[in-house]
């Protein structure tokens, strides 16, 4: 079978900032870096080595605790014990190293949009492979805010990020998709028969009749805290997957976005003390969360910046400087949580030839991208009036899968009818 490369991308560079933050690199939403650009952190995207180092440690820590966390919530009325989440990336890679796949639909990204799409594609009787570069399913929910409560998903009054990720994963498994965690989608090739072939960074080849890109904000890594990077892993962290790890500790949270405020609120009840340091007077987190934090025991220091971290073998003292007056204060601290936002890379997807708007993928009302047989859904998409929410991504995923189903098999109907029997798939 002869194959040929897909055309080079047409990237709208007009909005791209000069410097290192170039095509395919974008800021994570909902964070310090979101609305005002590069606020608290270093403006330079981390090197691959830094990213790997950070990913390796951070995500290993996540996977270490996630299984216990999932089981712990089983007692809360949800049947989460039944879940089998592949949390060991090496085992997962080994199990799939030599296995190429031929499927109807390849889904890139196992965040909420991708997981729901996997369920929906199964309902449409499509064979599915899902790949995600993270070693856990759930995207931003699982990686960035597992302990945050989500209130705005229809039909679910409140749920933890981790719980929703687990429920979506469980629902995705209804029709047995192949979910490959720890694998990033790489080069795309279009074969003579219109099949799309994607190589992963782990050496797999996945051939699909259509692709659905649900890559969210891309492959994301935390923005480093310039002062004290040498304390990463010994008191300086970027994620708090398990608040119990900071029980009884004096915690300093750095940042002014949703993550920083959410972390402060989450840790208030378990830590000995929580201090939030933010370089601006105003927080950019959700108003209600900021209000809640102001009414809590959290000490708020603005406009302050971390100027140095000290300690013998681990974090002991953090020096903070008043941004306006230059006054310096030394704080006794056990752990620093740097929540400065994220650098997200579109990575190889930027070379797939899809039309990009502001480094998001432009889609039409069917969720089709500018490249035939490639659809997109969730945070990664852009169209007039786009709103980035979990609920929106779920709806887009259903639209994308139903439209992809017709492209994959023109005999299929666009509207599948309504689900009433899990055993019944709609062709
Ligand atoms: C702190 C915070 C709080 C939030 N709170 C809420 C809330 O209360 N309510 C709400 O509706 N929304 C909230 N959001 C937004 C919500 O999390 C997103 O809208 C949602 O996660 C988007 O889902 P997604 O599946 O489209 O993308 P993501 O969740 O970003 O998942 C995308 C996945 O694709 C993977 N990926 C990317 N590139 C590749 C590649 N090349 N190969 C393989 N895998 C790849 C990533 O690793 C990731 O797992 C919040 C976000 C943040 C940061």
Structural account:
This protein has 427 residues and is α/β, with parallel strands linked by helices. The chain folds into 2 domains: 48-220 and 343-408, FAD/NAD(P)-binding domain (3-Layer(bba) Sandwich), CATH 3.50.50.60; 225-339, 3-Layer(bba) Sandwich (FAD/NAD(P)-binding domain). It is 25% helix and 24% strand. The chain contains 9 helices and 24 strands. It has helices at 32-36, 48-72, 89-96, 112-123, 139-143, 161-172, 258-268, 287-294, 390-408, and strands at 3-5, 25-27, 101-108, 128-132, 149-150, 159-160, 178-181, 185-191, 196-200, 205-213, 219-222, 236-237, 250-254, 273-277, 299-301, 304-310, 317-322, 328-332, 335-338, 342-345, 356-357, 360-362, 374-376, 381-382. The strands form 6 sheets. Strands 1, 3, 4, 7, 8, 9, 10 and 23 form an 8-stranded mixed sheet that branches. A hairpin with a 4-residue loop joins strand 8 and strand 9. Helix 4 packs parallel to helix 6 (161-172) and helix 4 (112-123) runs parallel beside helix 9. The longest helix is centred in the N-terminal third of the chain and has 25 residues, at 48-72. Bound molecules: flavin-adenine dinucleotide (FAD). Flavin-adenine dinucleotide (FAD) binds at residues 30, 108-114, 131-134, 139-141, 144-145, 148, 150, 152, 184-185, 214-219, 258-259, 262, 347, 349, 378-379, 388-391, 393.
């Amino acid at each position: 079978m002869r194959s040929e490369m897909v055309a080079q991308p047409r990237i709208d560079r007009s909005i791209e900032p000069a410097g290192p933050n170039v095509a395919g690199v974008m800021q994570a939403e909902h964070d310090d870096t979101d609305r005002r650009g590069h606020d608290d952190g270093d403006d330079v995207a981390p090197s691959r080595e830094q990213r790997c180092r950070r990913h390796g440690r951070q995500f290993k820590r996540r996977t270490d605790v996630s299984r216990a966390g999932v089981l712990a919530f089983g007692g809360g009325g949800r049947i989460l014990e039944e879940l089998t989440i592949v949390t060991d990336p090496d085992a997962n890679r080994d199990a799939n190293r030599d296995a190429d796949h031929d499927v109807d639909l390849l889904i890139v990204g196992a965040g909420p949009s991708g997981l729901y799409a996997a369920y929906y594609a199964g309902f449409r009787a499509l064979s599915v492979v899902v790949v995600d570069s993270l070693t856990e399913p759930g995207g931003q929910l699982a990686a960035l805010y597992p302990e945050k409560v989500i209130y705005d998903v229809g039909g679910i009054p409140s749920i933890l990020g981790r719980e929703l990720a687990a429920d979506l994963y469980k629902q995705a498994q209804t029709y047995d998709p192949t979910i490959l965690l720890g694998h990033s989608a790489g080069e795309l090739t279009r074969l003579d028969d219109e099949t799309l072939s994607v190589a992963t960074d782990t050496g797999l080849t996945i051939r699909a009749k259509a692709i659905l890109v649900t890559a969210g904000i891309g492959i994301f890594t935390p923005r480093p805290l310039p002062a004290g990077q040498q304390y990463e892993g010994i008191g300086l962290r970027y994620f708090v997957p398990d608040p119990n790890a900071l029980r009884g500790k004096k915690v300093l949270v750095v940042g002014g976005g949703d993550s920083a405020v959410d972390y402060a609120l989450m840790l208030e009840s378990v830590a000995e003390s929580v201090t939030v340091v933010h370089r601006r007077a105003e927080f950019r987190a959700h108003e209600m969360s900021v209000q809640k934090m102001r009414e809590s025991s959290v000490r708020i220091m603005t406009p302050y910046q971390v100027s140095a971290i000290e300690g013998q073998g681990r974090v002991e003292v953090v020096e903070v400087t008043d941004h306006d007056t230059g006054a310096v204060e030394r704080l006794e601290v056990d752990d620093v949580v740097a929540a400065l936002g994220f650098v997200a890379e579109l990575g190889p997807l930027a070379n797939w030839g899809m039309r990009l708007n502001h480094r998001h993928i432009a889609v039409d009302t069917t969720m089709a991208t500018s490249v035939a047989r490639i659809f997109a859904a969730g945070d990664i998409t852009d169209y007039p009036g786009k709103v980035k929410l979990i609920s929106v991504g779920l709806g887009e995923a259903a639209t994308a899968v139903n439209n992809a189903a017709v492209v994959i098999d023109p005999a299929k109907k666009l509207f599948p009818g309504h689900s009433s029997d899990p055993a019944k798939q709609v062709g």
